[in-house]
Amino acid sequence: MKEYNWVMCPVCQNKTRIKIREDTEIKNLPLFCPKCKQETLINIQQLNMSVINEPDAKSQSR
């Protein structure tokens, strides 16, 4: 039987609405937390989550 886990918010550590199995692989998922209202870009592989930090967009000067 496969193990299931809830994906936890990397900001507030609460459960999100996503449940994954141990063989789930996710790349570049925009994870939204219903409690803290934050959206975070994540990767998941073998129940290990890593947060992707993207640099903020810079305005172009002319």
Q: Could you explain how this protein is built, in words?
A:
The chain is elongated and about 60 Å long. The chain has a 3-stranded antiparallel beta sheet with strand order 3-4-5, with no helix packed on it. A two-stranded antiparallel sheet has the order 1-2. By secondary structure, it is an all-beta fold. The model has no long low-confidence stretch (mean pLDDT 88). A hairpin with a 2-residue loop joins strand 4 (39-45) and strand 5 (48-51). Helices cover 0% and strands 50% of the residues.
Radius of gyration from the alpha-carbon trace, in angstroms:
14 Å
Give the neighbour order of strands across the main sheet. 3-4-5
The helix/strand order is EEEEE
Main beta-sheet annotation = 3 strands, antiparallel
Q: Tally the helices: what do you get?
A: 0
Contiguous low-pLDDT stretches (5 residues minimum) are none
What is the 3D shape? elongated
Produce the secondary structure layout.
Blueprint: E1 4-8, E2 15-21, E3 25-32, E4 39-45, E5 48-51
Antiparallel strand pairs: 1-2, 3-4, 4-5
How would you summarize what this structure contains?
By secondary structure, the chain is mainly β. Helix content is 0%, strand content 50%.
